[in-house]
Each structure stands twice: as C-alpha cells, then as structure tokens.
Amino acid sequence: MNFKSILLPACAITLSLIFSFSSTAKAQEVPLNVAVVNFQKVMAVSAAPKNVREQVKAIREQYRTEVQKEEAELLKANQDLAQKQSLLSPESFKEERRKFEQKVREVQKKVQQKNLDLQKAQNEALEKINQNLREVVLKIAADKGYSLVLRRENTVVVADKYDISDEVIKQLNAKLPSIKVFK
Prior knowledge:
Elements: H1 3-29, E1 34-37, H2 39-45, H3 47-84, H4 90-144, E2 148-151, H5 165-175
Parallel strand pairs: 1-2
C-alpha cells in the first residue's frame, strides 16, 4: 500500500466533509419565519367571495323564475295538445306532438346552457379572487419577511401568533371589495 493510494481518498473525504458543513451552515443562516393562512376562513369572510355568492344566488333565482314560467307554458301546451288529440288526425297529432317535444328539448337545452354559463362565470370570478388572494399573501410574506407560508388546512397544530388570516382578509377586502360575476 503506498502513500498516494491512502492520501487521495482521505483528501476527497475531508473536502466533502468541509463542503457539506459549509453548505449546512449557509442553509442555517436563513431564518425560518413561518405564517399560516386559513383559506377557508378567508373565502368565507372576505367581501369578494361573499359578493360572488350573493350574485350567483340572485342569478339562479332569476333563472328559476324563468324556468318555472317556461314549464308552465309547456304544461299548458301539453294540455292543449291532449285536448286536440281527438280532433286531429293521427298524422296531424303526431306532427303536433313532435313540435311540442322539440320545444321541450329546446327549453331543456336553454336551461342547461344558462347553468353552464353561470358555472363558468362563477369559476372565472373565483379564479380572479384566488389570483388576488395569492398576490396579497405574497405581499404580506415579503413585507413581513415570512420565508414559509402554510395553509391552515395542512397543519395539525399551530399557535395563533402565526395565523395571518385576518390580515389577509383585510388586505383582500381593500384590494378586491367586489367582483362582477358576468354580463
């Protein structure tokens, strides 16, 4: 066994230990400042999400009124068709029935499209809220020097002093007090 064969691995081990200790020391220099945000609370309490829920509820109520009116018209048309059945020839009745069924399908399609449009508009509004919410959390983290922000839903135990949800709500309300769902 010669001296070079022992020295080379020993130098390699020594250098790797030096680099690992120095990188560990550098990693420990960054302080870990933690904050927690309860996103469920933010979405329940903030003004913009409440505003979206109120608008969606009002639009759904308007849709419900429109659908009830159209259903009443269809029911009357169906009753009229039933009364005409004995007066019409089988071919004429069949044609009238086909027209009625087509109208039913059109109303169903219209209702389905309105619901899809409302869902899309609601999702777009919520996405805008989430985008603003992320910006608010990032701003607070930068301003207060938080190096780690966790979701409250993903933590088991957390002291109240780490919870910044109320500050997030306050800043989100200031930045985005309301949002138009659509139209």
